[in-house]
Each structure stands twice: as C-alpha cells, then as structure tokens.
Amino acid sequence: MEARLNMFANPFAGKLVRHINSAGKVVADSTLPAATQELVKIRASQINGCGFCLDMHTKDAAKAGETALRLNLIAAWREAKVFTDAERAALELTEQGTRIADAAGGVTDEAWAEAARHYDEDQLAALVGLIAIINTYNRMNVMLQNPAGDYEPGMFG
C-alpha cells in the first residue's frame, strides 16, 4: 500500500505539515498530562479509522509507559475502571468534539462542565487544540491512505 501523496516530499504539503506540527508542539508542551494527550489522540483516531495515527500513538504511549490494559480498553473506556475521572472527561470531550456532525449542537454543556471540573483554562485550551489537531491529522491520513505499521517511536522528531 502506498500513500496517494507524500506530504513530506511535496514542498507545499511539507510546509502545511510543519505548521500543524508547530501547533501540536504547543499542546505537547502544555500542562495537559502527557498520558491524557495520548489517550485523546488514540480515541479520536479510533473513531476516525486512522490506522497511521493509531500505529503511531499506541506505540508512543506504550514507549512512554502506558499499560497494554489501558491501551486495549480505550475504545470501551465507559465500561473500563482503569481511567481516572479526569481522563474520562477528556475522552468524552474527544468523542463529542470528533463526532460534531453526529450530534445536534456539537459538544454538550455537560461534557464541557465535566472537563472544566478537572482541567484549568490552559489545559482546556490544550485539550480543544489537541482534539482539533488530531482530527486534522486523521482526516489527512485517511484521505491520503497513509499505510500503518511501520512507525517507530521518535522517528518524526
């Protein structure tokens, strides 16, 4: 399987990706817990069917010390007792923020209030930005049919 377009080989596409990566770096350097960031990226990628991002973020999370149990239960987080209340709030916000078209009105006030109970304003801004960024990457990778399975942790920087 080959990607339809190599985003790194095309100068215009490469510039676009570098700017998105810069936004991602701002989020990565925020006070939003790194484990929460990976959970969010994995859950959005599951919803969007992005194998490339799932490959990357599950491997990155595992290398950072995330357990196989938690990684295996992300898709069923509502039924799993291995996530904190804060992580559950982030996962709920991720689902609603990813499935905007599926719900009239987008993210509910209840989901927002629960997230706001666990995260300060900077962390909420990071969470919103992260959800938007991973959804952008998911959509790009799915459209381009980027193949999954070859990612090695740290290979992009």
Helix content: 55-70%
Order of helices and strands: HHHHHHH
C-alpha Rg, in Å? Answer: 15 Å
Q: Give the mean pLDDT.
A: 95
**Beta-strand content:** under 5%
How many DSSP H or I helices?
7
The biggest sheet, with number of strands, parallel, antiparallel or mixed sense and barrel status, is: none
Inertia-based shape: globular
Structure description:
- With 157 residues, this protein is mainly alpha-helical.
- The chain is built from seven helices and no strands.
- α2 runs antiparallel to α3.
List keywords for this structure.
single chain, 157 residues, mainly alpha, 64% helix, globular
In short:
With 157 residues, the protein is an all-alpha fold. The chain contains seven helices and no strands.
List the helices and strands and how they pair.
Elements: H1 11-28, H2 34-48, H3 51-63, H4 68-73, H5 85-98, H6 109-118, H7 121-144
Helix pairs in contact: 1-7, 2-3, 2-5, 2-7, 5-6, 5-7
